[in-house]
Design goal:
Radius of gyration: 18 Å
Helix content: 25-40%
CATH architecture: 3-Layer(aba) Sandwich
Strand content: 15-25%
Number of helices: 9
Structural class: alpha/beta
Strand order of the largest sheet: 2-1-3-4-5-9
Number of domains: 1
CATH class: Alpha Beta
Oligomer: single chain
Order of helices and strands: EHEHEHEHEHEEEHEEEHEHEH
Number of strands: 13
Distance between the termini: 33 Å
CATH topology: Rossmann fold
Length: 255
């Protein structure tokens, strides 16, 4: 089976590429560096030639609704059109647990739009929603540390390893074309407070910053504090735990 991975160089994408190759798939990793721009569609159709399936794990670095909607609308439409032209039988798209419980706020509303466009599109699309990655606290710390203080939001999360999400995406490809959403993918441990995970990353990496937990305001804040980002009861819970990941080869101490 030939599988194209869009966003194959990112945090999740590199694990998707590795997992697909470990199963013997013929993998093509697509990105702007390889001459494929999913936002404009440049180079996309030729890159999908001969692909049986494509996996979209691309992302945009903004929480603002306007830019995020433009990104996900463009990428969804372009991928559906190119996959139709090249007769790709199956698309698999990663999304986020709880995006439809966030009141259409910014980035989350844009992901809902992406899901809708794909599920209404001509090519059979499987949506796999995952909780925040174990890697997420470290990403937030890199953006929100100012001198000795790291400012992080107060959230309830049930994080999952990006590598485990990659496995779920490849499982979806291996199962064949399916139009719809699969059960949520989340980590095996009960929900945790996000600031506690950030403190654990700082301790593991030997950094001395203090964590300042800041409540998210308004209705969105109430939603995330009361479980909007947590998996449904029928969710697929997969290891490793956050602590196991933190001490393992994918954890920040190995960087």
């Amino acid at each position: 089976m030939r599988v194209a991975v869009l966003g194959g160089a990112g945090v999740l994408g590199r694990h998707v590429v590795q997992e697909a190759r470990s199963r013997g798939f013929d993998v093509v990793a697509l990105s702007r560096q390889s001459g494929v721009d999913l936002v404009t569609g440049t180079g996309l159709a030729p890159a999908l030639q001969g692909a049986d399936a494509a996996i979209d794990v691309t992302n945009v670095q903004t929480v603002r609704g306007g830019p995020a909607v433009r990104f996900f609308e463009s990428t969804a439409r372009n991928l559906q059109a190119a996959a139709t032209r090249e007769k790709v039988a199956h698309l698999v798209v990663v999304s986020i647990v709880g995006v439809d419980r966030m009141g259409g706020f910014g980035y989350y509303g844009a992901k809902v739009t992406q899901e809708r466009l794909h599920l209404d599109g001509p090519v059979n699309t499987t949506v796999v929603r995952a909780t925040q990655f174990h890697e997420f606290p470290g990403q937030v710390l890199r953006r929100s540390t100012f001198g000795p203080v790291a400012v992080v939001p107060t959230l309830r999360v049930q994080t999952v390893a990006a590598r485990s999400v990659a496995t779920a995406l490849i499982d979806a490809v291996a199962s064949g074309p399916f139009r719809g959403r699969l059960p949520d993918v989340a980590g095996p441990a009960p929900a945790r407070d996000f600031p506690a995970l950030a403190r654990a990353v700082l301790e593991r990496t030997g950094r001395r910053s203090s964590v300042l937990a800041v409540p998210v305001p308004g209705a969105i804040g109430r939603a995330v504090r009361t479980g909007a980002l947590l998996p449904a009861a029928d969710g697929l819970l997969v290891g490793p735990t956050f602590e196991e990941w933190l001490a393992g080869p994918d954890g920040p101490a190995s960087a």
